[in-house]
Amino acid sequence: MNSKIxxxxxxxxxxxxxxxxxxxxxxxxxxHTDYQEGFVFPAAVKQGIWAGITKNELGLCRLYSxxxxxxxxxxxxxxxxxxGHWATYVMGICTLFKQAGYRIKEFDLVIGGNxxxxxxxxxxxxxxxxxxxxxxEAFDLHIPKKDLARYAQxxxxxxxxxxxxxxxxxxxxxxxxxxxxxxxxxxxxxxxLPVKLGEYKLVLVHSxxxxxxxxxxxxxxxxxxEESVSLLQTTYPELLSLRDLxxxxxxxxxxxxxxxxxxxxxxxxxxxxxxxxxxKALSRNDLVHLGQLLKASxxxxxxxxxxxxVELDFLAQEVIGMEGVLGARMMGGGFGGCLLxxxxxxxxxxxxxxxxAAYQKKYLLTPDFIEVAPGGGAQKI
Length: 381
Ligand code: GLA
Hints:
By secondary structure, the chain is an alpha+beta fold. It is built from eleven helices and 13 strands. The chain folds into two domains: about 1-195, 2-Layer Sandwich (Ribosomal Protein S5, domain 2); about 200-370, 2-Layer Sandwich (Alpha-Beta Plaits). Alpha-D-galactopyranose (GLA) binds near residues 31, 164 and 167.
């Protein structure tokens, strides 16, 4: 991809660009906990977005997306980011950098990647991080890594309309080869844990569905959690987020919250505890327990938090019942995208055949299978 970016850049802009890479991410466990200051356990993957960039003196930023085969240009003084367009993330990052007082000028940019869109591997966070890092490098801004993640999060919130947490851009910025990150979203700090799976491996089954209401449903779930926090603050005045509660608080929480809100709060509280358990299980190489936690996470996301969908539930049920599978769960925001599985390498080929047959029969859809392994974070190439 690096050489493709360089070739395209020289053809379009007759220049040799500086190239940066920002990866997508998987999440072992810890879903819908980041925006409640909870724990998550993501890893960057080897797939991601590459961006080639040079400054220009034309009074115009000129962009080209290899994936969409589209050009776009805008003036830095009159940008109008529109939802749903890839260039929105570029204009969003420029707007945020300018607001923060960074001196940026016009540039040429070519972007391209190998992340499957709509699979839940955070292609938009990778795009924002790549653009942010590229601009930072091209204009010698030396933007600190955590700020880069926060700008990328803000770009998604303000310009894509998803009130997301910090997990995706943070993972893209801080990923490390062979490691997952136990990330505390309150302190925004992490510990690296080696992902050693022996004869097992992590796999993704892409459901090929992406439900159109995903962004608004995501924002509603976040609001439901915030509503629970304000209701609970009358009894727990020191409570800042659901992360402050533990499993032993659940009976009291159940009594204090309306029936519609309690299951959502329960998911966040129990998921935070599963993340910490999963980190311990991985450290002591207890993959069986890790698999059980993945299954429990899916159950909770589907039944309590209600962010799964029939296709993902079907895939989870099928995969979990197969020989050689220790656990599986929906990954990411939900309402489509991928299932993450912990499967025995030797069983993987036959598992794929069985899932394909069952899914085609039930939904007339053919799933994609994506191999993933923890990779390094965003960097200049
Ligand atoms: C999306 C968001 C993240 C996180 C996950 C769910 O990927 O961007 O911030 O909330 O959903 O865990």
